[in-house]
Amino acid sequence: MIVANVRSQLTREDVALALALVAQHGTEARDQSETALREQGLDALLDDPHLLAGLLETPRGAHASLPLFAYVLVRQALVQDGERDRVLADYAAAILLHFGLRDRAHRVAEHDDETFDTLAGLVAAAEGPDPRRNFLVMAHLGNYALWLSGMFPDHIAFRRHRRGGPDLDYFEQLGRRGFTMAAEHRLANEYGLGLLFGRAAERFPVMRVALNRISDELLFPDRHTPDRLMRQVRDESRWRHAD
Question: What is the predicted pLDDT for the residue at 239?
């Protein structure tokens, strides 16, 4: 099962690289980062905006580990949208790391034999006879909906126009449903995941928008379509209205 454990995977080498990347922005930035690390801990260093710039804009950033890169990228994208819950950032980064490997996005567990290509298939599978598997399917429904709607919104728009596929609202609805069902399952408290899944259901749209920004700016920066523009305008208006 995917859990929020990306920060716990960071090593001394990751910390040393993070300090070096921040230090490239000058003596003052270096001194501030070292003080923050010493007095406030690792999270303060990971939140330094100079770190993201160093990861993305300098040759040395290419040496970052995947956990360091994924967490900082997701964390600062979420902060940009006003979401400062580090556990949510940790969890979303864990989804990216796991689902980026082979066909993990299509399996409810790493060694599960059954694969799923649709959210509807996961909804149906969540009502099976095995409570533990149902719990895994519910969590995977939330994870898979977030992965697809967060990292591939343009593909969703393309399929909606060409093949009559569902829109982003459908993915948000089922993603929140999956996390809500997982949060309410008796195994959620046993595994200590009830609060996390409840928060993921509540903040699903914010996580989706943060991942959209990563996708738009880093994965597919040269794609400019009316659908993308309308999505960005709608999301911006949505958060401004919410504030």
Answer: 64
Spatial separation of the C-alpha atoms in residues 46 and 33, rounded to whole Å: 9
pTM: 0.94
For position 240, what pLDDT does the model report? 58
Contact between residue 74 and residue 89 where contact means Cβ atoms under 8 Å apart: yes
d(CA 128, CA 137): 10
Cβ-contact 131, 191 below 8 angstroms: no
- Joined tokens for residue 231: 């999505």
The span from the CA of 52 to the CA of 195, in Å, is 28
Q: Determine the straight-line distance between the first and last CA of the chain, rounded to whole angstroms.
A: 34
pLDDT digits (tens, 9 = 90+) for 192-236: 999 999 999 999 999 999 999 999 999 999 988 999 999 999 998
Q: Cβ distance 64 to 19 under 8 Å?
A: no
Contacts of 108 (CB under 8 A, 6+ apart): 114, 116, 122, 125, 133, 136, 137, 139, 140
